[in-house]
Write a structure and sequence with these properties.
Layout: H1 2-19, E1 41-42, E2 61-71, E3 74-84, E4 91-98, E5 104-112, E6 115-118, E7 120-123, H2 124-137, E8 139-148, E9 151-159, E10 164-174, E11 182-186, E12 212-213, E13 223-231, E14 236-241, E15 246-250, E16 255-260, E17 272-278, E18 286-291, E19 296-302, E20 315-323, H3 331-345, E21 352-358, E22 362-364, E23 370-371, H4 374-385, H5 395-404, E24 411-419, H6 426-435, E25 441-447, H7 453-462, E26 467-470, H8 476-487, E27 493-500, E28 503-508, E29 521-528, E30 534-541, E31 544-551, H9 564-582, H10 586-598, E32 606-615, E33 623-626, H11 648-657, H12 668-675, H13 679-686, E34 690-696, H14 702-712, E35 728-735, E36 741-746, H15 754-764, E37 778-785
Parallel strand pairs: 1-12, 2-13, 4-33, 20-21, 20-24, 24-25, 25-26
Antiparallel strand pairs: 2-3, 3-10, 4-9, 5-6, 5-10, 7-32, 8-9, 8-32, 11-17, 13-16, 14-17, 15-16, 18-19, 19-29, 21-22, 21-23, 27-30, 28-29, 30-31, 34-37, 35-36, 35-37
């Protein structure tokens, strides 16, 4: 009897905990723990014959198909997703899927029966509001949002019983060859993402992380197909697909059609990778022009010269910038010393080098670069070895000084920076690098077990280089060897581009770095006036002067180059977004939003919305189902943080009650806490929190704020467990333009319990009000009672 009573008690406690959480029962453990973080979870198919899940189609996505057309260097892709409701309940489905980071998504449409609804681009908040309105009113609608540059989310509302709804999205991307090989990658599945953000406090834009997944080895629940049509302009060679079994049909030497073998219909658990080369190891090069009547765009792609013998290589100059600030003291600086002893000790006799040390100030080995003699190498290593680490981290003036050092004529300069990246001048550093790409190649080495990867990766990206991160002393030789291999034989240096008689503007990149591998020089831009003049590219290749002249007047704008406008805008958006991830700036957000709206592109701040005008679901009731994703092939269940945990009484009880077809797998400590509730759990189970007397600044939605506060109220229950039978406190929150809480205070003498007060404020500071309005910056005041 005691055992049965304990089980009953456990189940009762679980139900009480659930009553305090979010209304979405598919996330039934939302507030089971104050420390619950955003987490993926395993899909659990309910076998309950009765209850809320009866006649519910738990897997509404039936198929996804990609139709790819590659013409020259541009790929145009149409992705078709088919949703079918084979149950008897009206559905909303949520599907998270990946895309290429280079994809410029420019169109979407929804088809219901014979009705076709073309999607419109809207500001993200406006699109979401329009979708929610259509959903509530019973109109079918689809919403496409960008959660990450390579992660999208599709919501489809009011899929009636028996409905088939088809959603098509269209995107384009540039095919950039590496080592003369073209590679088209179609990502198929988003793997589980780890996050340490508190679930209840996280913004809506992060909720996609809480996505159901199938177990390892389980095939996708939907079919997958892809067809690639290649029209290369030159004979196609060595075409292969390393990821899937395919069928290839040729219609002439330069035209190939690649179809997916029927045995791969469940192959949507791994990226589709197709590679090919062009005859003669050629890289498609030349000038593409587009004129849509309002704006004119161009794309210049130039094949680099052939490789040459090491003896023909131009002189190389290296400037090594070493961070010797206080944060580098000890282990990080010791690694830096080992790294530079390796790099400097392996220079060629014909190379030149210099060393610049920086912390709060900077010191240089020599005002002129030195030849790589044994004596000079010993001098340099001694210069570095004497450092112990101390002072601030002034990277910007150090980089300016390095770039201003006199450069020997005929030498190609490479700047190598070793730092932990603990600086706060990201934007200025980025700008300096972008403006000097034609003067120096810039590479970064991150040193330490917890580097600032934002600035390290950002510097490498804007410098068209590559970041190297060293976390252990033993990694230094391998990283140094990889670096030497990359830069040992540049194909083209000191590159300049002159637009003679061709009125080009808004050009990206602003300057061109050295070409260090068999990949083309690519330049985007706009142009005015007539197709006249010429583009002259100059540089040094080996011991020779390289010159290429492209006569613009002989090239006509083509209709099939219309994708250039999307590619140019996508490139500009990516650059702005890189800056913005380092330091949010309202002006950059406004510019990304403007570009998305002007060029009809999906961005972090613009979304596609397609809403039907016909009211089909008159009572507005529907069940929300998150489409479960397969784990990527080769990934184990342990990729889901709670994979090894027992299901626990809570999960089993929910399944019997029909509380949802998908539930988070319980953490071991959460399962234990539920199975053996302690005093705090009991206190939290019998107490409730209410939110009242809400006042907000202009631009904020009181209803949206109230909803968020109510959903989060369960988080503060642990804070008031020892405050007596009831509390009433007035709280004021200050938020910034991103919806982030920057300050929170309890109105004096409204609680009279300092420990509880500080606990509540810590919880509330985790909140994000990004979805609560358009003009977010301001204050929120409310009363908590419980």
């Amino acid at each position: 009897m005691k055992k049965a009573a304990r089980k009953a008690g456990f189940f009762f406690a679980a139900v009480l905990l659930l009553s305090l959480s979010s209304p979405a029962l598919s996330h039934a453990q939302e507030n089971a723990s104050e420390d619950k973080t955003l987490s993926p979870y395993f899909f659990v198919k309910s076998d309950a014959p009765t209850g809320s899940q009866k006649n519910l189609d738990q897997l509404p996505l039936k198929s996804t198909y990609a139709d790819v057309n590659i013409a020259g260097v541009i790929a145009d892709v149409t992705v078709t997703q088919v949703y079918r409701n084979e149950g008897r309940r009206t559905l909303e489905t949520v599907y998270v899927f990946p895309a290429s980071t280079r994809a410029a998504v420019y169109g979407m449409k929804m088809t219901i029966g014979k009705r076709i609804i073309e999607a419109k681009i809207r500001r993200r908040d406006d699109a979401r509001q329009e979708y929610e309105d259509a959903k509530r009113q019973g109109r079918s609608a689809s919403l496409l949002e960008q959660q990450r540059p390579n992660v999208f989310q599709m919501n489809v509302a009011n899929i009636m019983a028996g409905d088939t709804i088809t959603v098509e999205l269209r995107y384009t991307e540039l095919m950039v060859p590496e080592d003369k090989t073209y590679e088209f990658v179609y990502p198929t599945v988003v793997g589980p993402r780890y996050s340490n953000q508190p679930s209840a406090a996280s913004p809506v834009t992060e909720k996609w992380v809480e996505n159901p997944h199938l177990h390892q080895g389980e095939a996708p629940t939907y079919t997958f197909d892809i067809r690639v049509n290649i029209n290369a302009g030159l004979p196609v060679r060595q075409l292969s697909c390393s990821s899937h079994k395919v069928r290839v049909a040729y219609d002439g030497p330069s035209h190939a059609v690649v179809g997916l073998d029927k045995s791969e219909s469940r192959g949507g658990n791994r990226d589709y990778i197709l590679k090919y080369q062009l005859a003669g190891d050629r890289i498609e090069s030349g000038l593409l022009l587009s004129d849509n009547g309002n704006e004119k765009f161009f794309l210049l792609q130039l094949q680099p010269p052939k490789r040459f013998l090491p003896a023909e290589m131009p002189g190389r100059e290296y400037v090594f910038i070493v961070d010797v600030s206080g944060s580098m003291h000890g282990f990080p600086l010791d690694i830096s010393k080992r790294l530079f002893r390796d790099l400097i000790g392996n220079l060629r006799a014909a190379d030149r080098f210099n060393v610049l040390l920086f912390s709060g100030g900077s010191a240089v080995l020599s005002e002129q670069s030195l030849t790589a003699t044994a004596d000079n190498i010993r001098k340099a290593t001694s210069f570095i070895d004497q450092q112990q680490g101390g002072g601030g981290t002034e990277l910007l003036p150090a980089l300016k000084r390095a770039l201003s050092l006199p450069q020997a004529e005929g030498f190609s300069r490479t700047v190598v920076i070793a730092t932990d990246g603990y600086v706060t001048v990201e934007e200025e550093v980025f700008d300096l690098i972008r403006k000097n790409l034609n003067k120096a190649n810039i590479f970064t080495f991150g040193i330490g077990t917890s580097t600032n990867r934002h600035i390290l990766e950002g510097m490498a990206r804007v410098g068209n280089g590559e970041p190297f991160v060293i976390t252990k002393a033993g990694e230094a030789p391998a990283r140094a060897a990889a670096f030497r291999k990359m830069i040992q034989s540049p194909l083209l240096t000191h590159i300049t581009i002159d637009y003679a008689g061709f009125d080009a503007y808004d050009i990206e990149p602003a300057t061109i770095p050295d070409v260090l591998a068999d990949r083309p020089v690519i330049v985007f831009g706009k142009w005015r006036g007539k197709t006249a003049g010429k583009i002259v590219i100059k540089g040094i290749s080996g011991n020779d002067i390289f010159k290429e002249v492209i006569p613009v007047g002989k090239i006509s704008p083509a209709k099939n180059n219309s994708a250039l406008r999307y590619l140019w805008a996508r490139h500009r958006i990516t650059l702005l977004s890189d800056y913005n991830r380092l330091r949010a700036d309202d002006k950059r957000i406004q510019e990304v939003t403007r570009l998305g709206l002007q060029y009809n592109l999906l961005t972090a701040y613009t979304s596609f919305i397609a809403a039907d005008s016909e009211i089909r679901n008159k009572n507005g009731e529907q069940a929300t189902v998150r489409q479960p994703l397969p784990l990527p092939e080769g990934v184990s269940d342990y990729a889901v943080p709670q994979a090894a945990a027992p299901a626990g009484i809570l999960q089993k009880s929910l399944s019997r009650q029909g509380a949802g077809n998908m539930m988070p797998a319980a953490k071991p400590e959460t399962a234990q806490e539920t199975a053996t509730p302690g005093k705090e759990t009991k206190d939290r189970a019998v107490r409730t929190i209410t939110v009242s007397d809400i006042s907000v600044s202009a631009g904020l939605s009181k209803d949206a704020v109230k909803t968020l506060l109510e959903q989060y109220s369960g988080e503060v229950l642990g804070c008031i467990a020892k405050t007596g039978p009831s509390i009433k406190t007035v709280i004021e929150i200050t938020i910034n333009s991103q919806g982030v809480v920057t300050g929170a205070k309890v109105i004096p003498e409204s609680l009279n319990n300092e420990d509880a007060e500080q606990c509540i404020l810590r919880k509330l500071k985790k909140l994000n009000f990004a979805s609560a309005g358009k003009a977010l910056k301001g204050t929120i005041r409310f009363t908590l009672m419980g």
